[in-house]
Structures are given as structure tokens and as C-alpha cells.
Design goal:
The relative contact order is 0.18. It contains eleven helices and 24 strands. The chain folds into two domains: 2-79, Fumarylacetoacetase, N-terminal domain (SH3 type barrels), CATH 2.30.30.230; 91-379, Fumarylacetoacetate hydrolase, domain 2 (Alpha-Beta Complex). It has 385 residues and is of the alpha+beta class.
Length: 385
């Protein structure tokens, strides 16, 4: 558990008996605190997640019998090596920002009809590669692949020249479902353990040539980077906000009640090698047209089953203002408007040696919840013979 710049060792607390009452109450083995990932712990479901969070609040309360003991179990984050928080069995990437989808449509299709006919009727998504999801701090190698210009020349092979980030949030599934069993929008959030920051790296030139007719493949599967910390859904109750009005009215299985969007502030930073940080985008998760409940309902409406640890990414999060665009594709408008950094250099897309940093937090009054960061440096492509 992250506490400011420190980490509280829950496995050590468990060995001291801090969770014995929860274990007997919820039938949870203490060994779940000693696993390499959170999968076994979160598989016990929302009642246990809520009880555990309440117990930790009691433990950390000043003057509690556990406050001194827990203080002795704090480790500085700077001294710790971060690992993947969950084992990801499956990964789905959605396309849920109407601003991002509209920007892409204006660039590459008809500006007057930027959205494809299905976009306002369902949460568009695709099944991505789980094995290449890596934790913050892992360098990312520029991918090789086929690319093709706009003329009649043959495709060529080599390193991507249009390396890009995509600023996203992802939710982590904490309750599995059985094959053939849809999940309603009303029940969807019972399956969500929490959220983390997600950088969906993209090789735009590889993607452009390969994606017709089946969608993204090598232009996406080379890497996705995530923050090591998951903020639970319970912790975000105070940050719920209404989502955008959906027109036309969606089909009954996608209709929902209540406020299902979240006011989470995000920023993207580019740091050139040896240079300073440059904030290139500030956006907000609340802009999403399709919310998490709708994403899960649509994902499972055909009977597709969910597993503990599955990740579902939001798709690029962009707002209406250019300062809130969530990718270099939009910021530079496909390379037509280069971005100038503080050292005088320009970026149409990302260069080798650039470090991309994404940070997120929720803030309301005097309450602030941080998501940490996801940070990755781009390394040169591997030369193949």
C-alpha cells in the first residue's frame, strides 16, 4: 500500500496478525498477502476489498494500537523495485473518447463525418497482447515493421518513424464470470477492483498500413506500460461525475443509472535524454463518452468471460482543447504542427532517448488521491539482418 513516498508492507502486517479477524470473517487465507501478484487477494471480491480498506484505515489512524507497528514496516518507494501489480491474462483496449475518435476521423477521413457509423452505438474495442504489458520503469524498444507511404511505392521494412504514446486509464477485473454469462451495467462495477495509469504505445506508421481490415496488430503489441499502483474503486466514490450525454439513445443493454464517470486528472510529460521535463498534455478521465460499466456490459454481452487480473484500457483520453489531447498524433496533428520543447528541439513524434511520463490524481477539496506514475524510455530499434 502506497503512503506518500513510502510503502506499507501488508504481508508483514498479516504475519503480525493485523488481518486475522478479516480472514476468519471472509474465509481468506493469510497467504494471499504473500503472493507475487494481487490476483489471489482481489479474487475474494468486493466485500473483502471494502473490509480490507476499512481495516487499513483503522491501522493507520493516529494513536491506534497498530500505528507504531505499521510505521516500522514502511519502506521508501525510492528504495523499492516496482513489479507488475497483477498477472494479466487478457487485455482489451477501447476507443471511448469522442474527442480522440473525432480528431482521428478528421485527420484521415471526412472531417464532416469524422466518426464511423457504429461509434455512437457501441464501445469500440479490440483484443490486445497481454504478454507485452510492462510495469513503469521498463524501457521500450522502438519496433520494426512494414510501413508504406501515400504513393504507389511498395511497402518497406524498418524502424517505426512515428512512435507515439496514448494517455489512458485501465480498470482491473477482480471478479471472474462464467463463459456464456453477460454482465449488466448495474452489476458491472462489482467486477472492477480499481484503476491504474496505462500508456498504450503506438507505432502509427506500422498501424496505418496493417490495420485494414482487422485492426491493430504489430503497431500496438510491442509494448504497453502501466503504473505499479492500483487505486481501488471504493477509494474513488467521492470523485464520481456525470458523463457526456449520449446521442442517439443507446440500446437497452448499454443504458445505466447513476454517475459512472470519474474526475481523474492526468498529464503527459516528455523528457528528452539529458533534458528537463516538458508537460505536453493535461486531460481528464471524466471526458470519456463510454464509461466502464458500458464497456464491461458490451464486452460480455456475447457471453465472453472475464478473469481476475484482466485489464481493460479506456482508449486515448482527449478533451476538446488541444492542450488536452492524449497522443502525439493529435498534438502534432499527424506531424503537420511540430511541438517545440524547452530545449528548442521539436517533436512530430517521439525520438529515441525520450522518456515519456504519465501521472494522474484525483482531487476534491482537501482530499487528494495519487495514482503514481508510469515512466518509460524509448530505446533504438534492434537491427536485424
Amino acid at each position: 500500500m502506497a503512503i506518500g513516498d513510502h510503502i506499507l508492507d501488508l504481508s508483514a502486517l498479516a504475519q503480525l496478525g493485523a488481518f486475522d479477524d478479516l480472514s476468519s470473517q471472509d474465509g481468506v487465507e493469510i497467504s494471499v498477502f504473500q503472493k507475487d501478484t494481487l490476483n489471489d487477494l482481489i479474487a475474494h471480491g468486493r466485500p473483502f476489498w471494502t473490509s480490507l480498506r476499512k481495516r487499513l484505515t483503522e491501522i493507520l489512524a493516529e494513536g491506534s494500537e497498530w500505528s507504531k507497528k505499521s510505521g516500522d514496516l514502511l519502506v521508501a518507494q525510492a528504495d523499492a523495485k516496482m513489479h507488475m501489480p497483477v498477472f494479466v491474462r487478457d487485455y482489451t483496449d477501447f476507443y471511448s473518447s469522442i474527442e480522440h475518435a473525432s480528431n482521428v476521423g478528421k485527420m484521415f477521413r471526412d472531417p464532416a463525418n469524422a466518426l464511423l457509423p457504429n461509434w455512437r452505438h457501441l464501445p469500440v474495442g479490440y483484443h490486445g497482447r497481454a504478454s507485452s504489458i510492462v510495469v513503469s520503469g521498463t524501457d521500450v524498444v522502438r519496433p520494426n515493421g512494414q510501413t508504406k507511404g501515400n504513393d504507389d511505392t511498395a511497402p518497406s521494412y524498418g524502424p517505426s518513424q512515428r512512435m507515439d504514446f496514448e494517455m489512458e486509464m485501465a480498470h482491473v477485473i477482480g471478479q471472474k464470470t462464467e463463459l456464456g454469462t453477460p454482465v449488466t451495467t448495474a452489476a458491472a462495477e462489482d467486477h472492477v477492483f480499481g484503476f491504474l495509469i496505462f500508456n498504450d504505445w503506438s507505432a502509427r506508421d506500422i498501424q496505418k498500413w496493417e490495420y485494414v481490415p482487422l485492426g491493430p496488430f504489430l503497431g500496438k503489441s510491442f509494448a504497453s506500460s502501466v503504473s505499479p499502483w492500483i487505486v481501488t474503486l471504493d477509494a474513488l466514490e467521492d470523485f464520481r461525475v456525470p458523463g457526456p450525454k449520449q446521442e442517439p439513445e443507446v440500446l437497452p443493454y448499454l443504458q445505466y443509472e447513476g454517475t459512472r464517470n470519474f474526475d481523474l486528472q492526468l498529464e503527459v510529460i516528455i523528457q528528452p535524454e539529458g533534458g528537463e521535463e516538458n508537460v505536453v498534455s493535461r486531460s481528464n478521465f471524466k471526458y470519456m463518452y463510454w464509461n466502464v460499466a458500458q464497456q464491461i456490459a458490451h464486452h460480455t454481452v456475447n457471453g465472453c468471460n472475464l478473469n481476475v487480473g484482466d485489464m481493460m484500457a479506456s482508449g486515448t483520453i482527449s478533451g476538446k482543447d488541444p492542450s488536452s489531447y492524449g497522443s502525439m498524433l493529435e498534438i502534432s496533428w499527424a506531424g503537420k504542427n511540430p511541438l517545440k520543447l524547452s530545449d528548442g528541439s521539436e517533436r512530430k513524434f517521439l525520438k529515441d532517448g525520450d522518456t515519456v511520463i504519465m501521472r494522474a490524481f484525483a482531487e476534491k477539496g482537501d482530499k487528494r488521491i495519487g495514482f503514481g506514475e508510469v515512466r518509460s524510455k524509448i530505446l533504438p530499434a534492434v537491427v536485424s539482418s
